Amino acid sequence: MNHALIEIKNLRKSFQGQEVLRGVDLAVPEGGITLIIGKSGEGKSVLLKHIVGLLRPDSGEILFQGRSLTGMRRAERGALARSMSFMFQNMALFDSLTVFENIALPLREKTRQGEKEITARVMDKIERLELGVVAGKYPSQISGGMQKRVALARALVTEPRVILFDEPTTGLDPIRKNGVLSLISQSRQTFGFTALMVSHDIPDVFRIAAKVALLDGGRIVFEGTPEEILATDMPVVTRFLAGQEETETDLEGAA
Ligand SMILES: Nc1ncnc2c1ncn2[C@@H]1O[C@H](COP(=O)(O)OP(=O)(O)OP(=O)(O)O)[C@@H](O)[C@H]1O
């Protein structure tokens, strides 16, 4: 992990006069997992959506290997979009498609590969993510943890350079949560992509992150390693981490 693959500079975004991102600066190093944390509604998903081009900034820049997204020609932006995948919380699997067909979908949509190559690529991911037994099943016939594994296979099948994860473990129990986090970490080592992830699984998710960035008040107010964020006495960080613990305790108490 060394230079920044993606750089976000002074990014601003308002919705109906309400400024959500107020000058976000963030460097995402190549390789490794960069984690974005922050309170609910701070704009973490909005930030990810700018990187995949689903939202356009009011001002500021997103650089990919030093090149500005807005300055790129259409063809170049298209190629870049094909080199990224995402696993977003609301991007569920298609119920009417089998696991195999769900994984094949990005290849059918984003590439011109023939049936033989598609089958080979899908089967490779199915084998590596140990999904063989469920390949012919429909999403409703498999567990939530298995569905996340399928969603990960779908994100990986185009062999992307960057994968964005928006709360990839939402709705899973603690054991399955940790299973999915380990799977993401192992897949990253095997396939070598750069990951940018939004997660509330604190502190569990720290063990797989190389870098942590805290979004607060529309800006990144802390960047560092997991060890650094746990050790800092910056009030904005300690308040946030203490709040997370309370939420966890409340949820456990309510369960
Ligand atoms: N397309 C949109 N139009 C209007 N407002 C939006 C839009 N997208 C996001 N917002 C607003 O931007 C703010 C930030 O939303 P966002 O989903 O990024 O928060 P978040 O930090 O990801 O929260 P959570 O942790 O709860 O998922 C919210 O107030 C949301 O209502």
Architecture overview:
It is a single chain. The strands form two sheets. Strands 6-7-8-3-9-10 form a six-stranded mixed sheet, sandwiched between helices. It is built from eight helices and ten strands. The termini are far apart. Helix 3 packs across helix 4 (115-128), helix 3 (99-110) runs parallel beside helix 5 and helix 5 (144-156) packs parallel to helix 6. The protein has helices spanning 44-51, 74-82, 99-110, 115-128, 144-156, 174-191, 226-231, 235-254, and strands spanning 4-15, 18-29, 33-37, 59-64, 67-68, 84-88, 162-166, 194-198, 211-216, 219-224. The protein folds into two domains: 4-83 and 161-254, Rossmann fold; 92-159, no CATH class.
The SSE string, one letter per element, is EEEHEEHEHHHEHEEEHH
Helix content: 25-40%
Major sheet = 6 strands, mixed
Q: Any ligands, ions or cofactors bound here, and which? A: adenosine-5'-triphosphate
Oligomer: single chain
Radius of gyration: 19 Å
Q: Count the domains.
A: 2
Instruction: Enumerate the strands of the largest sheet in spatial order, edge to edge or round the barrel.
Output: 6-7-8-3-9-10
Any idea what the CATH superfamily of the largest domain is called?
P-loop containing nucleotide triphosphate hydrolases
| Terminal CA distance | 40 Å
Unreliably modeled segments? none
CATH class category name of the largest domain = Alpha Beta
Second CATH tier, the architecture of the largest domain: 3-Layer(aba) Sandwich
